[in-house]
Amino acid sequence: MEPSPQPGDRLTTALAPDADAVAEWIGPEAFNRWRQLQAWIEQNYPQVFAPEWLNGGRKRGWSLRYKKTKAFCTLIPGYRGFSVVIVFGGAEREKFEERRYRWRDQLVQLYDSAKTYPDGRFLTLAVSSGDDLEEVKELLIMKRPPARD
Asked: Which residue ranges in the chain fall short of pLDDT 50?
């Protein structure tokens, strides 16, 4: 007997999830923010990224990566919510440090505790409110300025 999913559990279906599966897994409020973020990326970075579903196996589940040559961000559907992973390379870490005192204390603490690997610092942010979504957008703009018309 499979245990009931717990908040944050990863989506581990056999096939890449479609929008309906994501909506059911993360819930309606989170799915609304998920869709808002996807629309924002498409609007501000038109035809730059081709979102790609990646399967991390039973432990890590599915994630939706936005990447051109370097990773832009990865959306991770968790049970009743979702997170966004943003990788900060050297240039992005410098930009973050320049703005360190303009970010929320919680974000700075998450950033400071995020592990730095040779390919960057991996920051994982839960998107559980509109404010969280706006903060993710600001970080993504800092990482890569939007395309100009």
From this structure: none
